[in-house]
Amino acid sequence: MVIKKSPKMKDESLIHRNIRIDPDKSYLLLVGDDRFIDTTTLLAEMLSQRYQKPVETINILPNIPPPHIEDNFIVINRKLSDNIASNNGNYHLPLDHSEINREVSESPYIKEITEKILKNQPDLFIDLFKNCPEMSLPQKDERIMTIGPSPELHAYFDNKLTQRDIIEQLGIPVPKGQIVKSYDELINAYKENFRESAFVTCQNGSGGNGTEKISSLDEILSSEKIKGKKQFIISELLDLVSSPSTLGIIANEDEVMVSSITDQIMDGVDYKGTLYPSSAGKENIRKMKEYTENIGKYLGSKGYKGFFGIDFMVDKDDNLYFVEINPRKMGSTPESVLAYKTENPNLPALSELEFNAVTRGAFNQDISEYKNPAIWWGVRLIKAKKGQKTTMYIPRPKTEKSIFQKSGQTILDHPGKDIEYLSEGRVARAVYTINNSDFYGDKRKTIISKLEQQKNMIKGSLR
After folding, report:
1. pLDDT in tens, 120-159
2. Where are the domains of the chain?
3. Which top CATH class is 241-459?
4. What pTM was computed for the model?
5. What are the φ and ψ backbone dihedral angles of 57, each rounded to 5 degrees?
6. CATH 3.30.1490.20 fits 176-237, yes or no
7. Which candidate, 158, 31, 165, places its Cα nearest to that of 101?
8. Pairwise CA distance, residues 217 & 200, whole Å
9. DSSP codes joined into one string, 8-47
10. What is the CA radius of gyration of the chain?
11. Are 193 and 178 in contact (CB under 8 A)?
């Protein structure tokens, strides 16, 4: 199907919508990231008790969703809208989280929809990956609330220089390095103290954006990732064996839950996926939990509430180092939420704990009752390059929730056939789980092998 923008749409950023507001139902908004569609249903189930009527999620996305999502979605993307207006065809153009949050906040159509919803319910919650300052709907209507840390605290803690100060206060080990306040200082610091291999990270950036491994001065001068940036941390480049990360939730300075400790699948500095559980060893896992709790309590003392993540790295000598604080959900949060819900079916989901933390400042639940998931799982993200086009549709064989309840594999979020990528963007996720105590093989190797097979299948849908 070729998507054409309707001439009746007065909102220049609005591309497509398929929703109908039913006064006998209540609604929840999911903004920006279709990875969270399955887990947002857990929030909808909880909110149905709050509103005493069924709750549905309206997905607000920057691109046409996968074909299995047939209703309750809105597509907003001004850049993509301009392209569709002048070309026939199906296109995919990612927006970063600040862009989609800004466009949603400024959209006349979204304003109209939220006003209709709020005629039939007392408040409206927004679930989103990153609550950056560009999300201004709550400032325009106090009945609208985001589920996550405040935009101001997100922006404050999403600063690598601020993070470095916090970590030094807490006595958590970091690689040897220094803060530099300009591009020229970065070049001088490299010449004087490193000369060969170094790791450079900009003041802001995540998922490999704004970070670079450097082995020569020419690589600094030619790097698009750091060119034009103003402040940096340059540090020694370690010989790494793993890149573990933790996921936690903060309710206040005393209530911090460390839920998952995983290993990131990395390609250089770029995040490609996650494996659970971590292979970092008992002592490093103990340290990561301790460090994450201490960081969480510090953030909680400043008023931070909601999901957060910490990236670490382990070198060849088994030394553990802090990398960065992620003041938001993590890329593998959906899998962690579903694994915990599978292991603890009678306890609130992690997404519900975040909701309680944000709205009440407390979990309202004894978190010691939770059991760590026995299920092993892995997720792999596959991207298309600019100019690539999908030649086939890979339908999801199973929901993500179902494969956590039973061992299995699935491919999620594939956009369909004949979608042309106008810039690099995610095509699909491959997920594999082993929830079987009778499995006697090497679970980690099996998961890695199965994810590789699924990755190749997804890449085979591109040309």
Report:
1. 999 999 999 999 999 999 999 999 999 999 999 999 999 9
2. 14-147, 176-237, 241-459
3. alpha beta
4. 0.91
5. -100, 135
6. yes
7. 31
8. 12
9. T---TTEEEEE----TTSEEEEEES-GGGHHHHHHHHHHH
10. 22
11. yes
